[in-house]
Design goal:
By secondary structure, the chain is mostly helical. 45% of the residues lie in helices and 10% in strands. The longest helix is centred in the middle third of the chain and has 12 residues.
């Protein structure tokens, strides 16, 4: 008897209904955990949940995942996009100076570079 796939999702992220519908269509068992990884070692360990078969798949940012998989030569395959949406950065009000600096830096990024970043995130 074949078991349902176990899919890991971030506990702190409100996924849109289309993601839950797609997982339901797979008859997936959904598990959650925090995705806050602050070091490369933690990121590598995060993907170990796949290699040690604790989960069958992880819903994660594709570009970040590709970088970690490449950097550590991990035996992980990227599948099709389940959901795509823009990424945002927020700062606590105490960090207003950092936010203004980041806004200034981002405003100086050429439009062609922004379009290339967007194109990469739209790739299947």
């Amino acid at each position: 008897m074949q078991r349902s796939p176990i899919i890991l999702i971030a506990e702190e992220y409100p996924y849109p209904d289309e993601v839950y519908s797609a997982l339901k269509a797979l008859n997936a068992d959904i598990v959650t955990r925090s995705y806050y990884e602050s070091t490369d070692a933690q990121a590598k360990s995060f993907f170990a949940t796949l290699s040690d078969s604790r989960v069958d798949a992880i819903v994660v940012d594709r570009t970040w995942a590709a970088k970690i998989i490449h950097d550590f030569d991990l035996p992980v395959a990227l599948l099709h996009n389940l959901h795509i949406e823009p990424q945002y950065i927020g700062y606590h009000p105490n960090n207003e100076k950092k936010a203004l600096r980041l806004q200034h830096l981002l405003s100086s990024v050429p439009e062609s570079v922004k379009k290339e970043i967007e194109r990469r995130y739209q790739q299947p």
